[in-house]
Specification:
The chain is mostly helical. The protein has helices at 12-40, 42-70, 99-121, 127-155. It has four helices and no strands. Helix 1 (12-40) packs parallel to helix 4. The two termini are 26 Å apart.
Length: 161
């Protein structure tokens, strides 16, 4: 279970801080999937590594935006616990899963991240924070598209997306 907090108390800086934490965690999850896939599907491992790098780039872009807007102001939050916003639901498949399940785990994580950012919008009054959250949600939609394309390529056209 991830950390729960009161969205209504977030301002634009908080949103950017939390987004960085979430993106770092997502990159780590993609690295775990890549490590698993190395034994089973080198092509999928390469894809998951690309997604990990993409999440890392996203984190860097968000950090840069934060610095531009807020300089070196310290965060009100500490990245010391599992945020579990964009983490695959490993409980659904246990410790052994197929390549298709690995892709679906990643897709589910991206869908949850999108829903998380969209849900937060409803609680935030800071227009700048709302704009940032909406952009983050759209990034998650793009990640879902990448995954669906990869699944169709790697697993065949018969895979329902």
């Amino acid at each position: 279970m991830g950390i729960e907090f009161d969205f209504s108390r977030l301002d634009a800086m908080d949103v950017l801080d939390l987004a960085c934490f979430i993106e770092r965690e997502a990159a780590g999850c993609y690295e775990q999937l890549a490590s698993w896939a190395e034994k089973n599907s080198p092509g999928a491992a390469e894809f998951f590594q690309r997604m990990a790098r993409l999440e890392g780039q996203h984190d860097s872009q968000i950090e840069q935006r934060r610095r531009e807007l807020f300089g070196d102001r310290p965060s009100r939050y500490v990245d010391s616990a599992p945020w579990e916003v964009e983490v695959p639901d490993y409980d659904k498949v246990g410790t052994s899963f197929t390549l298709e399940q690995a892709y679906r785990l990643a897709l589910g994580a991206e869908e949850r991240a999108e829903a998380y950012f969209r849900q937060a919008v409803g609680y935030i009054s800071d227009p700048q924070a709302v704009h940032i959250l909406e952009g983050l949600a759209e990034e998650e939609v793009e990640h879902q598209r990448f995954l669906k394309r990869e699944m169709a390529t790697r697993l065949g056209a018969g895979v329902a997306t």
